[in-house]
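Sequence in, structure out.
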Amino acid sequence: MGLDVSAASIVLPSERRDMDKKSRKKKEMRGAESVTHATDRQAGNPAEPVKMKNKEYEAELFKLQVELVKLQEWVKKAGARIVIVFEGRDAAGKGGIIKRILERVSPRVFRLVALPAPTERQKTQIYAQRYIEQLPAGGEIVIFDRSWYNRAGVEHVMGFCSKEEYKKFLQGCPIFENFLVSNGIILLKYWLDVSEKEQHKRFLARIQDPSKRWKLSPMDLESHRRWYDYSRARDAMLVATDTPGAPWSIVPSDDKKRARLNCIADILSRIPYEEVPYSPPKLPPRQKPKGYAEPKLRHRVTAQRW
């Protein structure tokens, strides 16, 4: 479903003529610069993408978040069940995208699942069992911040599962996911693709920033060392589990802002939701105090530091 066209995007003929004049002047000023960029590309030096300004990013993000609210209302009305799986290397930006998705929606509809390491009891269960327990009921969207694909990634690379368990997972995963889809669940799978250079940069930032140190675990450090082991595991996973019924979508994530916008827009485009008509409620008048008066506070009040 496409996004609504706002009134601000409609241009009157007189305004269009003025814009055409300004556009011609800008093109003339950019002439020499564009020749330089073309020469750079021909020389094998592709120009870096222009950094998105915060104001533009926030405006586009808000539009998408409004659409997420519309999606939420449709999911509730239709009783839809949606699963969104986010996978990728450490520091690929999964948390950032998920945070922006959940920022303006209800936790009663959008539910985040980020499971810890399995307990000793869970290790004796069927592998997918603890994930099946988290699947949505009607009117829910479940977001997995890492999922059953742990077996194809960290468990396989770090030796937390046997080769036989790994092989069975790759064989059985498409069957499991097709079962979900055949039962009416909308399943979306996203792999966030971060470059080696950018991941290294983000790891260094986590070390240096006191507010981000908690994000860097011993497992993250090991994933930094085993870059190519994880690359091989990713390649095998995508080949085995990218099916017509449950395809993977790759999200280039070196540019965090664009990755967030592109991913949310893709989610919205792949769910056949419709806008549910909204009737603004009328606020009822306040009741009369009937003798009530505010008492003098005798309780502790937080210090007013700002």
